[in-house]
Amino acid sequence: MTQPPSSQSPLSTREVPSSFADNQAYFDESRWQKFTRRLKEEPLIPLGCAVTCWALWGATKSIRSGDSYNAQRMFRMRLYGQFFTIVAMVTGSFYYNSDRILRKEYEEILKERKAIDKRNAWIRELEARDAEERDWREKVKEVTRKRQEEEDVARRKEEAKVGGGVVTKAVKGLRGKLVGDGDGDGGGKP
Fold first, then answer.
1. Which residue among 109, 112, 132, 165 has the highest number of C-beta atoms inside a 10 angstrom radius?
2. What angle do CA 112, 114, 119 make, to 5 degrees?
3. Residue 180 — left, alpha, or beta (φ > 0 → left; ψ -120 to 50 → alpha)?
4. At 154, is the pLDDT very low, low, confident or very high (cuts 50, 70, 90)?
5. Which residues sit opposite 15 in a β-bridge?
6. Nearest CA among 31, 27, 35 for reference residue 4
7. Per residue in 27-85, pLDDT tens?
8. Cα–Cα distance between 116 and 62 in angstroms, integer?
9. pLDDT given at position 171
10. Which sign does the torsion angle of CA 19, 21, 22, 27 carry?
11. What are the φ and ψ backbone dihedral angles of 8, each rounded to 5 degrees?
């Protein structure tokens, strides 16, 4: 559930409408809550609708019974009820216009805030994934380096047991030929 906004919006320099700050139910309301709130705000509209329906029902009943005078009277009542409902709607729309504008502003600010929160959460998730991948790559490099070192150490030990590797013998032979003793061991002794 969202909290009422503070007096200063982090998204803009404008103030968040303060008329909503003390009414938490105004922020997150279900369809039924919105319906009941609108009924309380404009109670004359449902009253006009009820009068219109009652007049139609009365006109239908009068027509079936054959009472044309009462049917005409109910049709006039229906027109008055419809006129009353339309006047109530227009008057209510002018009276509650400022509240509706504030409500739309609040909903836009809330929508922007949710979009920014969603974007920030996604960025945090991507950063966490990048950090995990970097750590994993570093571990793989470390394991690969250790394995290479172990293989080098094992190869050197093997070469030391055998008396040197092929390359070592070749280097000793070349060294011996360069020095000129001819035996190829590079020691320089006759």
1. 109
2. 95
3. left
4. confident
5. 8
6. 27
7. 567 888 888 888 887 888 888 999 999 999 999 999 999 999 999 999 999 999 999 99
8. 62
9. 76
10. positive
11. -110, 125
Cα distance between residue 47 and residue 145, in whole Å: 83
The one-letter amino acid at 23 = N
Amino acid at 119: R
Which of 46, 38, 40 has its CA nearest to residue 103? 38
pLDDT tens for each residue of 2-30: 444 455 544 455 554 445 455 554 556 78
Q: What is the DSSP secondary-structure string of the chain?
A: -PPPP-SB-SS-SSBPPGGGTT-GGGTS--HHHHHHHHHHH-THHHHHHHHHHHHHHHHHHHHHHT-HHHHHHHHHHHHHHHHHHHHHHHHHHHHTHHHHHHHHHHHHHHHHHHHHHHHHHHHHHHHHHHHHHHHHHHHHHHHHHHHHHHHHHHHHHHHHHHTS-HHHHHHHHHHHHHHT-SSSSS----
pLDDT (tens digit, 9 = 90+) per residue, 87-145?
Answer: 988 988 888 788 778 888 888 998 899 889 889 988 988 898 898 999 999 999 999 99
The distance from CA 95 to its chain's CA centroid, rounded to whole angstroms, is 36
Residue in the block written with tokens 């470390």: 142
Looking at residue 184, its pLDDT comes to: 45
